[in-house]
Amino acid sequence: MTVTEPTSGAVEPAEKLITVTIDGFEVSVPEGTLVIRAAELLGIQIPRFCDHPLLDPVGACRQCLVEIVDDGRGRGMPKPQASCTTAVMPGMVVKTQLTSPIADKAQQGIMEFLLINHPLDCPVCDKGGECPLQDIAFGWGPGRSRFIEPKRHFVKPLALSPLIAIDRERCILCYRCVRFSQEISEDYQLVLQERGAHTYVATFDGHPYVAPFSGNIIELCPVGALTSQEYRFRARPWDIEDAGTICTLCPSQCNVKLTVRDEQVARVLARDNPAVDDGWLCDKGRFGFQMISSPDRPTSPLIREGGALREASWDEAIEIAGSRLRGPRAAALIGGASSNEEGWIAQRLIREGGSEAVAS
């Protein structure tokens, strides 16, 4: 009789690794990894517009074309392939624009195609100086264009929402904003209207794009097609300073980056911390900074006397507040919109003053 000891649990199968060669360097990656991600592990940057690690791949812009070389066993591709939609295969040999004239020529052709209808208005575009289209055009684009035909025109800028302006002439149809609306925020409001050369981004019903997370499409846009109504024409990258901090407008405490000019906050951007927020911000956290410099914001303490408010010094206000928070009858009620730090400070003030009446 054979007795088998029970196992403590199912054993996870080992992750299957696939070895590929990119620009002469070998790398082993998990099965299903996209070629563009494998190249990133080697430090090889392939230009792209539609690709984003948090969005499903679609291969809309085609800027990331690479050459997949025949390895002698008939596993090559006859034409350049989009590295953002092509998964690695065992023994695959890939050449990027750095080592392949074919891939380099294909990427130059795509850039020329993307700029056919682009207005080339970098000097007046809010994205100027921090625009991926600018950088990639300089790095991988041709020196001149063969197209002399008239460009397409739209009325601009239009208010896509009370917070976002859209300039459809600059749009390169990368599909990022539409994919965010459908895959991430799941409000399903943004779509591509019309077809072919007449395609443009809009809401499906023509109404303003109002959603709790709509401001993320401003950061997702790789060109100046989607811009913040509040930040338009406010600053250039060389005029500003960035400061990392934490959003305190709700307990989620998302990581943010403040854009500061002339000692005033001009905009709020997401700061990468996947463990907290995946890089997405709500509109309250992104646009709520305007309250900081609001003319209606009190700039000094106010004390109520006889039904009216009067200005006071900080020393006087702190003394009065402290005297009223001492004793067993003092209590604090912390709202759900307060941060953890604010709640901790409030309970400490009340308890050290002699009260245990703290509710949350």
Overview of the molecule:
By secondary structure, this protein is α+β, with helices and mostly antiparallel strands. It has eight helices and 17 strands. The chain has helices spanning 35-41, 101-114, 132-140, 176-184, 216-220, 283-287, 314-324, 340-352, and strands at residues 17-22, 25-30, 65-69, 81-82, 93-95, 158-159, 164-166, 190-193, 200-203, 226-228, 241-246, 255-261, 264-270, 302-305, 308-311, 332-333, 358-359. Strands 2-1-5-3-4 form a five-stranded mixed β-sheet, with helices on both faces. The protein has a three-stranded antiparallel β-sheet with strand order 6-7-10. Strand 11 and strand 12 form a beta hairpin. The chain is elongated, with a radius of gyration of 27 Å. The termini are far apart. The model has no long low-confidence stretch (mean pLDDT 88).
